[in-house]
Amino acid sequence: MTNARNACDDGRPSHDQHTDYKTFYDKHYLAVLRYVRGMAPHLDAVEITADAFSRVWETWDRPKGERRAWLFAIAKNLARSALRSRSRDAVPVELTDSHDVLVAHTADIETRQEYTDTMRAIRELPDHLRDAIVLNANGLSPQEIGQVLGCSPRTASSYVSRARRLLAARADLPTGRLSRRRPRDSDQANDPGDRETRGEA
Amino acid sequence: MIFDRVLQWLPGTSAHARRRLVDDRLARLSAVLGAPASPVEDAVMRVTLAKILAREAGPADPPADERGEPAAGAARTRDFDLEPLVAEWARGICEVCCVLDSQAGLRDKLLGFAKELALRLLDPDMATLAPELVGRALAYDMHLTTRAFTATVRLLMPWAEQLQEFAGRNQPQLRAQVFADLSCGYAEGLRDRLFDEQLCTTTALQLVRTRRPATAVADPAPTGSAAPEPEPAGSEPAGSEPAGSESAGTEPVGTGLGETGLGGTGSTGVRQADGPPAEGTAEDATQRALWRQRLLRCAYRDEVTGLPNQRDFRERVTAALAAAGVDAAVALCAVRVGGLVSTINAFEPAVHDRVVADLACRVRGTTAGMRGVTVGRLDADTFAILVTNSTDWVSLHDLVKRLADWIAQPVRLDDRELVFAPWIGVVAGRAGRSSVESLLRQAEIALASNVQAAKQPWVVVDPGSVARDRQRRSLLMALPDALETGQVRLAFSPIARVTDGVIVGAEASPWWRHPEHGDVPVADLVALADEIGLTLPVGQWIIRAACAQAARWQHRLGARAPFVAVNVSQRASDDECLVHHVRTALRETHAPPAKLRLRMEEAGLFDRRGGWHNHLIELTGLNVRLEINNIGTRYARFDRLTSVPVYGIVVPPALVAKLGVAEEGNCTEAVAGSLVALGLRLNCEVTMQGVDGPRELGCVRQLGGQFAQGRGIGEPVGPDEFEKLVTCATGDVRRAC
What we know:
Chain B: GO terms for molecular function: cyclic-guanylate-specific phosphodiesterase activity. The complex is a heterodimer. Chain A is 60% helix and 0% strand. Chain A is mainly α.
């Protein structure tokens, strides 16, 4: 545990490092925790997040690129590796669904349903698009997403927009908003569909 | 493609609507992800940061492969090559002991054990297998002899030292702890294996004895062959040593029992051709072992539920606190099942056991999936759960909610359902600063405060309340002496008739003039005694003193003598001795029975089936008048009121105090008015407590209440002053009324 740069003479981290790290931790802890929970609700997200922050703290004086992106990348890799080795692990700590953790119990049923629908749609996306859109929802810039996913910022923003298009194509519009006429039973037999369901204007 | 992209920016198209919808949903998802931290998350966040900063002295050189490694301790373990150790370990074992496994299997097992021990030595938080279990597996599963275990320890000791030096953390205490646990686990595993093998042998021998007369004819081989092939009888294998050598003069005893192994004792279940088998010693030892197991079970296990009893739970908590580390956060969750004892006593013991076992299963089931949790039964109706794993703190709130939900579910008996109310108290502490006693005491206090509040799902106690509670309990213990030495006196609160302001009654309340603590209201202590199940002679004393005072006033004041109302606790009103006490007091003091009014809680009037307490009917036969106290504040069944010969009802101060206040008063007024109307329709006298001033008095009169009591009528005073109040000083009250 030796360190020479930006540290006190005895190898311990300086006061400034502590302060910076605490600020960074306070700012990003919840985001990473919820990111991991959304990714794998049945894993011990607290432990994985703690591990990720611990790794960042170990290399605090040698940042590899943007720290936030680096943090998310570690969290993603740790969660992936925990998912892979889950069968070898003991009983998971907490079997809670992500919406139970993220959406307060007092939230109304519509909010919970909407959250569940959104997450379900996101989970059906391909891996790279899913990661990109979730990181985007967590507030990461295209540069940071590119750093997490190991691609260029341009590719990252392309992923995000493709994910949005896919989500839009698969979204169910609420009834009564555009479909002004409820189809009759006789219509359903022959009619190929309303204009909205065919994607026409 | 391009057409679609253009469409989604044109308002009025479905593509545009979908894009807006997705944008909207993603914005809300971002809001959910960025929501402020809940208190639990905040606590976890602080604890995690403290752990990170405490674990690492500072930013360190990164490992070779940064991403995707499980943990730092595991990385260090991996760097240290375990293969030479495992090879040497396996060789050392094979030299002195017969191993049941193949070489490869043995090496795999030993490698797993070595990894776990290494993790335990370097980073105890990361290890999943306790050293006790490793030792137990060596003795029980792998049948290592004591010589092989000695060789193991000789090999592992220097290795552990090297490993810690390699990792840069030399911790002799941790090493000693690991090896102590390992040896302890080995000893227990060895003992259990011997007991199991002896039990297996005895079973086999008893079967032999029962079958012996029929061996010649009653054991036809399934295949029809003349010489049946012997098979091992027990589920346990033969043991580390091969079963005793079968000489040429032996023959198998019965089918399926011939080669029963006795690995631990060295004897076999084969019978000499010309002599009886040696059965006696094994049977005796097994009986002793069974007896010992039964004794241990009785001493440490709760008989009905199979959970650890209070003694075992204390020992487990002590061990868990010692193992958790000084700063580790621990929580003790005490669960009391309200009404369990009183309810199930009405049923026969078998039913009683079923209900308790059912509730114990629910309590145990709530902790499923949590690590570092100890469940025990502290008392007839109290269970306790100790949580030492800090990661499970996140789910502590969920655990409490699950407990409350599951216990509140009805317990189904054959044709009826029982419903119990859970009371849960949670105590938080640090392992280094808490003892078993302090945790259990605080949990008891948390339960008591939860019972009093009855609103919170759980209560965390503070040290101040501990001191207060201790003081209350010491007072409670000194109360019987105080009764004998005359330190307890009755004070009387005047009760006035609303129409003309005449003082017609007095509510007797005992006060303790304590030399150190000043005036202490005894009613609180009586309530506490009721709560903890202590039967005090206070109720009897109050009734007697009240009767004496009523007789004295009757003698001095004649027709103007006030009645005396006495509050009777629920425990006292359930007691059949109440009639005896009242009758004795009336006879000895010559008090007129009509001047005595007993105020009881509504729950105290009825038994569990909703019928009248028979002894209360006897009381009304004595012409003693019963009143329902604090009506409307607890769960009440008004349908039963029609069958009750109650003389009066008492509306509590909580309902009267807010009368006449602009906003809150309307609702209270409706409730109080309904209760007054109910009492009047039932031909009851209605007394309203908590009349502290003209405002409440005016409202009471408006609502139709007949009697008023409270600070506006008069403060509690001694008997002589009360007498003066009745005879001459009623002017104020009359003016007020």
